[in-house]
Amino acid sequence: MQHLYAVETIADLRQFDPLCSEQLRTSGYLRPGDGGGGDFYWAGEDNQADDGGLVLKSEQTPKGRWRRISTGQLDIRQFGALPANGDVTQQFQKALNACRKGGSLYVPSGHYTIRQPLMVHQGTTVHGDGLLSEIHYYGPAKTGCWNAAQRTPATAMAFAGLNTFVHTQNSWAYHLTGMSFSRFDNLFVHLRCANTSAYYGPGNGESPYYNVFTNCHASGPGGEANGCIAFDWAAYDDGIQAPNANQVFGGHVNSLQVAVRCQGTGNIFHGQVLEMVDVGYEFDLPKNRYDDVSKGISNDVMGLYTEYAKIVFEQRHETCYLMAQTSMVTGHKELFRGKSKENCVLLSSHSGQLPMNRSFFEKAINFRPLEFK
After folding, report:
1. 3-class SS at 149?
2. Is residue 304 part of a domain?
């Protein structure tokens, strides 16, 4: 039987001679009590690459590795991603790479700075403490903080309880391309500058399909025409495909230009709350389909609550069909702005007149069934 030796940090572990003991405990990663410590054992024949968290190389001998005794759930602090500790992109990515074959990665409360896109692998669940788990993204323009490591075939993963801040113009929090059958739960996105998006999903043959969003929020920087979009589901990559068959339940969107920009079909938006947006739902065709033989999309909006959405529904092509029902609409200028009311249904208990829009009445857009020959 061996004694369990203890050291303060991972750096001390690397300097510890395994001949003295093959069982070792660290009190922290960079300092005692920082949450990145744990129990390790010495694998004398192991030559696996050092990943900075689960497998650690010794400075005393080239052969053998210290291996963390894992309880199943990984913690980003085990890889040196500590709150308020500067740029922790590399440490975050090492923790995500440790989930290449699936796994659960915990992001505890704190402020984390990320400066490059993070790649998430198939079967990974990333979860935190909600508003308190702050990921501040300063990555390059035209990139997203959270990305699928593999796009073809599409991958399934899950995110929950994270608060992502976007600090670079023309960038995004979640880049959904390549994600299908995935879950997004209790997420917060703060868009801190203009022309940014929260949940961004163009196609290029890898459109996001069959995903479920529950209690996912987005807030913008405010101001007129800030160019920010919460659910940005347009066909930017190739002008043909956009997200299809996704479901959004609940969530609060405020202080940005467009709450939902949708160019896909079969998406369901249920019980959302929108405040202070220029456009609530913008339905359009991908630009390369305007002259295509096959036209048309159809999406549903149910149980909508809005305050001060200038245009609640905007139909930008006459074949963008919608079925919508609102529970509360106030402070808007136009309830529906569209190219055609045919083959659409809109039920609302409120008129389209300012200032308060509280007169109750029955409202329906005419519906004519399609005729097939």
Report:
1. coil
2. yes
- Bridge partners (DSSP) of residue 273 are 252, 305
CA dihedral 297, 300, 301, 303 (to 10 degrees): 170
SS3 assignment, position 99: coil
Token pair belonging to 87:
């740029």
Please state, in angstroms and as integers, the Cα–Cα distance from residue 150 to each residue in 72, 99, 119, 213, 372, following that order. Answer: 23, 13, 8, 21, 40
Specify the number of domains making up the chain.
Answer: 2
The pLDDT averaged over each successive group of 10 residues in the chain (373 residues) is 83 95 96 96 94 96 94 94 96 97 96 98 97 98 96 88 98 95 97 97 81 98 92 82 94 98 96 97 90 88 94 94 89 88 79 47 54 63
Distance, in Å, from the CA atom of 22 to the CA atom of 16, rounded to the nearest integer, reads: 10
> Rounded distance, CA 30 to CA 20, Å?
22
Neighbours of 56 (CB within 10 A): 18
Residue 157: what pLDDT?
96
Last residue of a domain, one of 34, 52, 68: 68
Q: Which domain holds residue 31?
A: 5-68
Q: What is the per-residue burial (b if ≥16 Cβ within 10 Å, else e) of 288-307? A: ebeeeeeeebebbbbbbebb
Residue 279 amino acid letter: V
**Over the Cα atoms of the chain, what is R_g?**
25
What integer pLDDT is reported at residue 190 of this predicted model? 98
Q: Does 188 lie in the same domain as 148?
A: yes
Residue with tokens 């300092």: 31
